Amino acid sequence: MPEINWEEPYCGEGNNCFRLGTDTEGNGFIAVQGEEDRYLTDSREALQQMIRDIKAEKADHLLRR
Question: What are phi and psi of 3, to 5 degrees?
């Protein structure tokens, strides 16, 4: 298992908490708080692009009911 430097959790309503992390190899990680041993991983650049896209409202369609 890589040595992951986890950020503080980002929590929404209803205690939906996610954690973002990075390692020294240039990888990015996303996990549910408390389940950091079950993470998604990709390059740090891919994680940065995902965050930029979310901030640019490109995922807003997922918020519609």
Answer: -80, 105
